Amino acid sequence: MSPMYLDEKLGVDRVAIIGAGPCGLAMAKYLLAEKKFTKIEVFEQRASVGGVWNYTPLNVIDNDFTVPRTHPTKLPDTAVRVNNSETAQFVSPVYEFLETNIPHSLMNYADQGFPSGSSLFPKHAVVKQYLVDYAAELQPYLTLQTQILDVCKSRAESGKSCWELQILDLKSNQTRKEMFDAVVVASGHYNDPYIPDIKGLAEFNETHPGAISHSKFYRRPDQYQDKKVIVVGNSASGIDISAQVGTVCKQPIIVSEKSTPATPVEKRSYVKSVPEIVEVDSKTRSIRFADGDVETDVDAIVFCTGYFYSYPFLKSLSPPVVTDGSCARNLYEHVLYIDDPTLAFLGIPQRVVPFPIAEVQSAWVSRIWADRLPMPPVEDMRKSEEATFLAKGARAMHNMAFPQDADYINRLHDAAVSAKPVQGLDNEGKGKIPPYWGEDKRWARERFPMIKIASRALGDKRHEIRTLKELGFDYEAWKASGSKELEEKLI
């Protein structure tokens, strides 16, 4: 593929978006706001918008799930049909009692708040409805129950270079091909579970079927009633799942952490923290940890160890974006495929607030594809991507823990609003304006681990809290009080 340079127009007219979750929906809105593209189509394998926020009680394991699981899948997502239903379902990492770990006042889209009365940390059903409402005006552009099997570069009859999509209609089981000038990959990265290769783990799984699982397949704590359980991982899902399972399992619940959590975690009397697992013995159901300690008679291990970057439909892409699944390579600003920037990826960054990130990425890409915003020379893009990889390494390459995420949001915002104005677009020709995080947003973002701890400490009363101020986090009062130095010691 020949890379595009600063002075070249990309000639984008028809755009395909893969995924109707938070990222894909944002992208569709920003593309429409450009009033330039003649075709915008959003493909979604589920029967409804919302992506992973489509909760299903299905306790079904993916077709190619293995223990351990150290390589990304090469297969499409497993479609599940219950009682021979025509509608295919897909297992989501959303579990029954999941609530957001981000305050809704920080995670919402810039032009749409959560409904008044929403709990500060909404339940998953509230988020799903929020996305359904956000997508109301996008219905003409949605193609649901449709799976993308392959995306490859081809040539149209006119001789123009295009992207050819092989598309499976999950209702009719018929495939077809369509051509687009540009493709947005908005399929997320919370789908392809990773389980490390630990000595004896495969044998343990064979000897005790179902004893080892991944957070993707967790639904309710009931299945761990009176069992001795180890949860591996102490990020958001590990903290939440151990809190739920810890109420019903044999106490203490054992939480294995490879490293000390980067954010504050509340002290929990029912939790025993241990280092990483180094060996598993299936005969005695014993687990040995890095410090030499051993736990015996273990009934279950839940791995909250994250997911691969995985795009099976891009198997012919060269150079590849995904190799071992630990990161996504050859992307400028974690978004544009450097060798052909008519291919874009949304939602790659981790440890971020996803909705506003999706918006600024969408705004930036839309303006580039509308030929309103130039890109740097290809060599500058390569150097930028390589520098990030060398500085952070593969597994942390997309980690944008605060303040990196706030700086990224504002950088892409500034780039987007600097685009050449066009008469007829909103905001005096600037187009749809993406979010910008001022001091108040940055203040809340920096504190939301503490905010979540304060909320969880309220028990069921947390559902009555609607605002940060009600929880005791008042930005204006903080700013006026001059108590910055005291609070910084708490963070």
From TrEMBL:
Family matches, as InterPro entries: FAD/NAD-bd_sf (IPR036188), Flavin_mOase (IPR000960), Flavin_mOase-like (IPR020946), FMO-like (IPR050346)
SUPFAM superfamilies associated with the record: FAD/NAD(P)-binding domain (SSF51905)
Gene3D superfamilies with a match to the protein in the record: FAD/NAD(P)-binding domain
Pfam family, one: NAD_binding_8
GO molecular function: flavin adenine dinucleotide binding; N,N-dimethylaniline monooxygenase activity; NADP binding
Keywords: FAD, Flavoprotein, Monooxygenase, NADP, Oxidoreductase
Cofactor: FAD
Family: Belongs to the FMO family.
Protein name: Thiol-specific monooxygenase
Originating species: Thyridium curvatum
